[in-house]
UniProtKB/TrEMBL annotation:
GO terms for molecular function: ATP binding; ATP hydrolysis activity. Belongs to the ABC transporter superfamily. SMART domains: AAA. Keywords: ATP-binding, Nucleotide-binding, Transport. This is Aliphatic sulfonates import ATP-binding protein SsuB. The keyword DNA repair does not apply.
Length: 255
């Protein structure tokens, strides 16, 4: 299944927030969206997931979701959004219960996604017993359980310290290498964008317009070995963003 942003334009209270955004996410592609604070990244993700309707243009899906997909467009948020009274297993099973899946079928799915996210040994733990990184792994396992066609990831690693972020990035790379997934991945972190993105959509400051779409023609699972090239790419993206990020920073400081 493909997800296509077609000429998306959106306003809040008459103020233009997103202006004519077009790009597509094909199967197995991770499309990162970067841009200064307040440029409309989360709004764009909500429109792509159908939580909000664009004033003009639209988010389209093309093709079939994978067989057995319970929720073709599935969000992963920065704050994990786990139920504190449910175990790791219980948090994952919740999304299956919502679809009436219980018993042996649910167990098989849960075992699979916990193994894929290295959580099998933590199945009975409660969220408060887990580190931030582990909590986000649970949120990823929960998302995988519904077999999404495309994951909509809103700064999924930004609540984590830098070491944990590195570990989770490695996890996402190995998850993708074993079974490529598709995602729209919003981030402030350009290192994440160049490590994970098939392409990077760079948005301008308010209103969010596409400044450039940077294609990264390098297999995701080879990138950890090609850091010099990645650094060059990261510098290129930063050059595109620098002045606008500075403006956005000044504006926030002046509030
Ligand atoms: N529901 C809403 N009603 C009115 N204005 C909104 C609403 N949601 C977002 N905005 C405004 O729209 C603009 C874009 O917000 P959005 O959260 O999409 O940006 P962002 O790029 O994700 O920001 P950040 O990088 O800081 O997370 C901001 O100026 C924000 O204040």
């Amino acid at each position: 299944m493909q997800l296509i942003a077609r000429n998306i334009t959106h306003r809040y209270g008459g103020r233009l927030v997103l202006d004519d955004i077009s790009f597509s996410i094909g199967e197995g592609e991770i499309v990162c969206v970067v841009g200064p604070s307040g440029c409309g990244k989360s709004t764009l993700l909500r429109i792509l997931g159908g939580l909000e309707k664009a004033d003009e243009g639209e988010a389209l899906v093309a093709g079939e979701a994978p067989e057995g997909s319970l929720n073709p467009l599935t969000y992963i948020f920065q704050d994990f959004a786990l139920l504190p009274w449910r175990s790791v297993r219980g948090n994952v099973s919740l999304v299956l219960e919502d679809h009436g899946i219980r018993g042996a079928r649910a167990n098989a799915i849960i075992d699979d996604v916990l193994a894929r996210t290295n959580l099998s040994d933590f199945r009975d733990a409660l969220p408060r017993q887990l580190s931030g990184g582990m909590k986000q792994r649970v949120a990823i396992a929960r998302a995988l359980a519904v077999k999404p066609a495309i994951m909509l990831m809103d700064e999924p690693l930004s609540a984590l310290d830098s070491q944990t972020r590195e570990l989770l990035m490695d996890d996402l790379v190995s998850l993708w290498s074993r079974e490529p997934f598709s995602a729209c991945y919003v981030t402030h972190n350009l290192n994440e964008a160049v490590r994970l993105g098939t392409r990077i959509v760079v948005l301008s400051r308010r209103p969010g317009r596409i400044r450039e779409i940077v294609e990264i023609d390098m297999p995701i699972d080879e990138r950890a070995e090609r850091l010099v090239e990645l650094e060059k790419l990261q510098r290129h993206v930063w050059e595109i963003m620098r002045e606008e990020a500075r403006e956005a920073d000044r504006e926030i400081a002046n509030v």
